[in-house]
Amino acid sequence: MSFDAENKNYWENLRKGEKQALFALYNNTYSHLLRFGLKTCANDELVKDCITQLFLQLWNKHKQLNPVTNVTAYLFTALKHQLLDQLEIEQKIHSAIDNLAAESFGQELSYEDIIIQGQHDEEQKHRLQLAMKMLTPRQMEIVRLKFFEGLSYDQIAAQTSQSVKTTYNTIYDAIKILRKHLK
């Protein structure tokens, strides 16, 4: 059976709710998705995270999945969208964090900067604060470790005494909440 035919078979079985088909599709396409993702984004941790998120989403929505002719192309496209969304969210988070940090450390903005960015920054800061309040204490801790301290998923898992998969899932859930409130 060819690579594409094999993936199509896994896809159809995934749609039927077969967990083993999800794992088989993941194992069969992971290295291809990783190489593809690294062409879009040089951050290997982010690419790995997005691949995991993609397959979690596929499983969560397996009943709504439509038949697909070219599963590999579908997964590449879905991963690219996942990466672009993630990069946009991280950029917004980092921007909001930078603004908050600048205020925390008492750095004053020039009068022109205040006029230009004032309203936008206040709105963004307010939205980020509201979104952060929606996170659980565990999610807030892991977001802090990932985005403020720059730890890898493995380091976060070791520091918080949880599995890497749980760390991925916690970050995924936290980002989903932040995305919802920052859009």
Automatic annotation (TrEMBL):
Domain RNA polymerase sigma factor 70 region 4 type: 127-176
Gene Ontology MF terms: DNA binding; sigma factor activity
Keyword Transit peptide: no
InterPro entries, A to Z: RNA_pol_sigma-70-like, RNA_pol_sigma-70_dom, RNA_pol_sigma70_r4_t2, RNA_pol_sigma_r2, RNA_pol_sigma_r3/r4-like, WH-like_DNA-bd_sf
Pfam family, one: Sigma70_r4_2
Keywords annotated in UniProt: Sigma factor, Transcription, Transcription regulation
Entry's Gene Ontology BP terms: DNA-templated transcription initiation
Record-stated family: Belongs to the sigma-70 factor family. ECF subfamily.
Entry protein name: RNA polymerase
Protein source organism: Chitinophaga silvatica
